[in-house]
């Protein structure tokens, strides 16, 4: 009997790079080389051409969705004769560790702000909703950091519920990649945004393993969702290269959680990073992240050098 994959139920329109590029409407870029350098992550050689070919058409599509959503919200307020707080358009952005989600999120935030209809665009990462290291250690979950059970999902769902309800001030915890932990007492305040981008490896997952959480999913609050994808061997290579770069930068800081790995040789660093991937990140990818890809409205399929080869748009 043939195996039925989840994606078989959701037809996609697959667009080649050239087909996707041809959809671009804008004649100019709302970003320059210097601004781009500040947005891209380590070992992600994204060019202005890549922004123009891939991310500008994506931002234009999101603008269409967000504008239609805002118009519908305005009409509903008129229909019910009340001045209810505006409900922001929420974009979910998922994908593996090291695939380039954060750069994609920052680029989209920058590009979407160019439209006056929704110039207030907030970016929130789900890292802030990881349990503190002390809690993870007490529960024996430090080696499961990034897995569904390592997140305070009730807090994340409450946050999204308040944001979607139009609450004027909503706080999200802040995570430090330097200390590899939640920053105690520090919060990001989301204040009446037009659009919110929620970025994280877990945003399309369901709560099937946690019976203490209501049957509500993070993705229930999304109006559009994106999955950034690539072949695993490419992602692993990007992960190893990023680890080596961090050895000479962030790991040199005595406050870094990974300070003790700064003197690993190149061979040792590659072996260590590969081990982390095989035992933690790769397992999480196959068990929890990759199975959610079919739930995304749009998939960015990357090839070598983080350049997008094709775009898949879900038809239903």
UniProtKB/TrEMBL annotation:
GO terms for biological process: coenzyme A biosynthetic process. Its EC number is 2.7.1.33. GO terms for molecular function: ATP binding; pantothenate kinase activity. Keywords: ATP-binding, Coenzyme A biosynthesis, Cytoplasm, Kinase, Nucleotide-binding, Transferase. Signal peptide: none annotated. It is found in: Cytoplasm. GO terms for cellular component: cytoplasm. ATP binds at residues 95-102. It catalyses: (R)-pantothenate + ATP = (R)-4'-phosphopantothenate + ADP + H(+). It holds the Pfam family PRK. Residues 90-242 form the Phosphoribulokinase/uridine kinase domain. SUPFAM superfamilies: P-loop containing nucleoside triphosphate hydrolases. Pathway: Cofactor biosynthesis; coenzyme A biosynthesis; CoA from (R)-pantothenate: step 1/5. NCBIfam families: panK_bact. Belongs to the prokaryotic pantothenate kinase family. HAMAP family: Pantothen_kinase_1. This is Pantothenate kinase. It comes from Halalkalibacterium halodurans (Bacillus halodurans). The lineage of its organism: Bacteria, Bacillati, Bacillota, Bacilli, Bacillales.
């Amino acid at each position: 009997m043939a195996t039925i994959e989840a994606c078989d139920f959701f037809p996609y329109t697959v667009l080649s790079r050239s087909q996707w590029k041809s959809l671009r409407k804008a004649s100019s870029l709302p970003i320059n080389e210097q601004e781009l350098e500040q947005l891209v992550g380590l070992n992600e050689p994204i060019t202005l051409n890549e922004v123009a070919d891939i991310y500008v058409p994506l931002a234009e599509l999101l603008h269409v969705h967000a504008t239609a959503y805002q118009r519908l919200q305005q009409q509903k307020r008129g229909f019910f004769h009340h001045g209810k707080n505006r409900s922001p358009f929420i974009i979910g952005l998922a994908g593996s560790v090291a695939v380039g989600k954060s750069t994609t999120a920052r680029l989209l935030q920058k590009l979407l702000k160019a439209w006056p209809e929704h110039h207030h665009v907030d970016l929130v990462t789900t890292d802030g909703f990881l349990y503190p290291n002390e809690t993870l250690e007490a529960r024996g979950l430090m080696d499961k950091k990034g897995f569904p059970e390592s997140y305070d999902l009730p807090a994340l769902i409450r946050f999204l519920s308040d944001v979607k309800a139009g609450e004027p001030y909503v706080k999200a915890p802040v995570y430090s990649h330097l200390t590899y932990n939640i920053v105690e007492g520090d919060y990001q305040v989301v204040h009446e945004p037009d659009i919110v981008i929620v970025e994280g490896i877990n945003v399309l997952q369901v709560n099937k393993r946690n019976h203490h959480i209501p049957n509500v999913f993070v993705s229930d609050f999304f109006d559009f969702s994106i999955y950034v994808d690539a072949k695993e061997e490419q992602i692993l290579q990007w992960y190893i290269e990023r680890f080596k770069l961090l050895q000479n930068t962030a790991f040199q800081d005595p406050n870094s959680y990974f300070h003790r790995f700064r003197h690993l040789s190149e061979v040792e660093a590659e072996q260590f990073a590969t081990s982390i991937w095989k035992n933690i990140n790769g397992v999480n990818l196959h068990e929890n992240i990759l199975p959610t890809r079919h739930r995304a409205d749009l998939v960015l399929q990357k090839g070598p050098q983080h350049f997008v080869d094709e775009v898949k748009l879900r038809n239903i």
